[in-house]
Amino acid sequence: MIAEILSVGTELLMGQIANTDAQYISRRLAELGIAIYRHTTVGDNPARVKEALGEALSRSDIVITTGGLGPTEDDLTKEMVAEYFGLEMELHRPSLDAIIARMTATGHPMTENNRKQAFFPVGATILPNAVGTAPGCVVEADGKAVAVLPGPPHELKDMFEKQLSPWLAKRSGAHIESKFLRVFGIGESRLETMLKDLFHTDNPTLALYCGPGEVQARITAQAKDSETALSMIAPLEDEIRRRLGEHVYGEGVDNSIEKTAFTLLKQRGETVTFAESCTGGLLAARLVGVPGASEVLMESHVTYADAAKARVLGVDEGTLKEHTAVSEPVARQMAEGARRISGADWAVSTTGYAGPDGGADGTPVGTVYIAVAGRGGTVVKECHFRGQREYVRTLAASWGFNLLRLEMEKN
Amino acid sequence: MIAEILSVGTELLMGQIANTDAQYISRRLAELGIAIYRHTTVGDNPARVKEALGEALSRSDIVITTGGLGPTEDDLTKEMVAEYFGLEMELHRPSLDAIIARMTATGHPMTENNRKQAFFPVGATILPNAVGTAPGCVVEADGKAVAVLPGPPHELKDMFEKQLSPWLAKRSGAHIESKFLRVFGIGESRLETMLKDLFHTDNPTLALYCGPGEVQARITAQAKDSETALSMIAPLEDEIRRRLGEHVYGEGVDNSIEKTAFTLLKQRGETVTFAESCTGGLLAARLVGVPGASEVLMESHVTYADAAKARVLGVDEGTLKEHTAVSEPVARQMAEGARRISGADWAVSTTGYAGPDGGADGTPVGTVYIAVAGRGGTVVKECHFRGQREYVRTLAASWGFNLLRLEMEKN
Questions:
Q1: Best residue of B53, B55, B288 to probe chain A, by most A CBs closer than 10 Å
Q2: Domain with CATH 3.30.70.2860 in chain B
């Protein structure tokens, strides 16, 4: 199957927003094994929408449109699809009821324009919108299909996953299942090499999504039913886990490294504190970003100056003088001091040169020492990150959570 | 003048990256008063690039391409432009010298493929690349123009600003100047209302760029020379500053609210510390994100639990019990305690409900108290933010820097 994406929205042509919808759909279609040769964006202009739709349909089997489903007069995507295929528009009563219910629940007055959102080309398959007022639809005619999706990204994603992805699967007679494995501490290119031979299958497929210091591996399988698809994922997952070992820290698309550390702490009924120098509050801020953080974090400290390391955390001034603040013994004393003054079960410390400059003693920029202190002792890791200041700090914080997670798994 | 953007790159069709280049160019063209009716994206496929180029040129005066200028065999944008217009490719010696110099400086071996990057369609205007190996070019033929730009966003932006923008201005016989004003503490829609009558001019133009809690106003003017353009910006800038008063905190595209606070502190030779509850380290982390932060921040504390507020900062336990941790007096005592224990000139505290839940006493989610303590006393602001946990925390931290900035300006 060959697909094209037609994005409708003057705000895209004006550069007010980036076309993340096209990116999202493209990525998901690639995973579903659907080829995609072109993206087109036009404004909220009826003639140009219709012209671009015709061109896209001449080159492909299915065109997925985004945007132009709102209540205003500018929003004309469905109408142009109907006009292109020579179809009338008709009211879809369940959609109207859903729109009225949503408007009532949110306390907004129902307008005549909102009624427009419940009209669709005759014969269209309706795609309900679980998170907004604009339903989508699929129109099939002349051996081609047009899927009409809303523009707001959260509505688009919800509708794609819950409605269009199953529709595409049904059309191809397949059920599609996916599983995310979260991987930390292996770069993308090394990971590609380690898993190289596993990419060469069409079903299941393996795709990597990369973030700072971590990679998500998505395994997707298609089969006649869900159980078969899952049973196709399992051996590939086992093989990836066997190769990557403790680098796999979790599953699921929302499961960040700090959330993994949080969940482990909560399960164990333990607390953590941080002693941050170069990360300057990032570790605490990221943990506090997880709802429920107050169960595992009572207090935390940023000790940026040497004097603060000594006074707040009790780091020995002789050690600071002899080894400098960016050193293994200082990282160790920071973590142990933070654990002592806070009474927390665990403490994580960071000290390093995030940039733009390295140390006066020649220690290169990107050098960071990270320590984790616990009941059973303290471990320190020396890291050498390459990149800009923000990137080095983000990686250092992520490594702090990763080392904490590994220590908890060991002890 | 009517323009189209043609983005070339299989990584865009696969959804590996979002097309932020198209957004950037669109925004800048809108500011320059150039109409744009369509974006097209195709993969690294010579036939499809040429086909899409022809279609785009049939509808517009200028086509701006991005991507496909790399050293690999896949990278064929320039070659397809030449083929479309029936032009030969020729070596541009200064570009080759620049590529050799860059490869030598970065210690990379020069390959035959890199030589390819110095070849251009005969007669093209070369656009040097100040931050990468791939120069761009403008090819003019048949009364139309094609501007060929590199794909990596930092190279694209640099080349657009330094090379293509002046070329476009020269073509239209105009000089273009821009000025950014940074505005804090007024929402986008209120700001639009306050400045409504100022948007209705073509030259200078006024555009708003929105971020969490803040807005940037960009004023752009075109004139026969730079001085005239600047003199057209000045009265509009004065009027905006008059209407927005202390809400304008700075100028320039890179000048964040924390950088403004940092610069003020540095100029005054003063230091700051933070006592963070709901922001959980964000204030410290954002300040440490500014290079040179060690001059103004020695230490900072996250006191998430009530007991930590009392023990670390000396907040009175009776006050905590009577008013709860999310209250004006606790915010005040947190800031004053942090200032006392650190010896810093200024202290900023935050305490509030970031979500998902509000207080057990019925205090609504989004309620945050922010205090700034200084030599001259303490001010406390009660804020009511609406949004998700991350958004509330980001706004609270930004407001902390804004209040600190206002206090410094007063004292």
A1: B288
A2: 175-251
Closest CA to B27 of A21, A10, A41, A13: A13
pLDDT digit string (tens) for B384-401? Answer: 988 789 889 999 999 999
Contact A278, A396 (CB under 8 A): yes
Pairwise pLDDT comparison (A71 vs A9), residue with the higher score: A9
Gap between the Cα atoms of A401 and A348, Å rounded? 8
Where are the domain boundaries for CATH 3.40.980.10 in chain A? 2-171
Residue with the two structure tokens 């540095």: B266
Cβ–Cβ gap B342/A308 under 8 Å: yes
Write out chain A residues lying below 8 Å of B38, CB-based. 13, 40-42, 48, 52
DSSP string covering A364-397? PTTEEEEEEEETTEEEEEEEE--S-HHHHHHHHH
Nearest CA to B271 out of B372, B374, B344, B377 is that of B344
**How many angstroms separate the CA atoms of B153 and B282, rounded?**
28
DSSP string, A8-56: E-HHHHTTSS--HHHHHHHHHHHHTT-EEEEEEEE-S-HHHHHHHHHHH
What pLDDT is attached to residue B187?
75
Q: Where in chain B is the domain with CATH 3.90.950.20?
A: 257-410
On chain A, the residues whose CB falls within 8 A of the CB of B256 are none
pLDDT digits (tens, 9 = 90+) for B333-384: 999 999 999 999 999 999 999 988 899 999 999 999 999 999 999 999 999 9
Give the tokens for residue A123. 């014969």
Residue of B nearest to A298 (CA): B305
Between A257-268 and A389-410, two packed helices, what is the crossing angle to 10 degrees?
A: 30
Backbone phi, psi, residue B21, to 5°: -60, -45
CB contacts of B27 in chain A (<8 Å) are 14-16
Question: What is the ipTM metric for this complex?
Answer: 0.75
Q: Are A280 and B301 inside 8 Å of each other by CB? A: no
A11 vs A135: which has the higher pLDDT: A135
Task: Yes or no: say if A71 and A116 are a contact pair by the CB < 8 Å rule.
Answer: yes
**Given this structure, which CATH class describes domain B175-251?**
alpha beta
> Which of A39-53, B35-49, B209-223, B263-277 bottoms out in mean pLDDT, i.e. has the lowest?
B209-223
Q: Percentage of chain B with pLDDT > 90?
A: 72
For the cut 90, the answer to whether the pLDDT of residue B137 exceeds it is yes
Instruction: Give residue-wise pLDDT tens across range A44-67.
Output: 999 999 999 999 999 999 999 999
Place of tokens 């080759």: B96
Contacts of A45 in chain B (CB under 8 A): 37
Cβ separation of A30 and B43 shorter than 8 Å?
A: no
Confidence at residue B333, expressed as pLDDT on a 0 to 100 scale: 98
Return residues 51-90 of B near A (CB < 8 Å). Answer: 52, 55
Amino acid found at B71: P
Mutation target among B13, B297, B386 for the A interface, most CBs of A within 10 A: B13
- Specify the CATH class of A257-410 in words: alpha beta
Fold of B2-171: Molybdenum Cofactor Biosythetic Enzyme; Chain A (3.40.980)
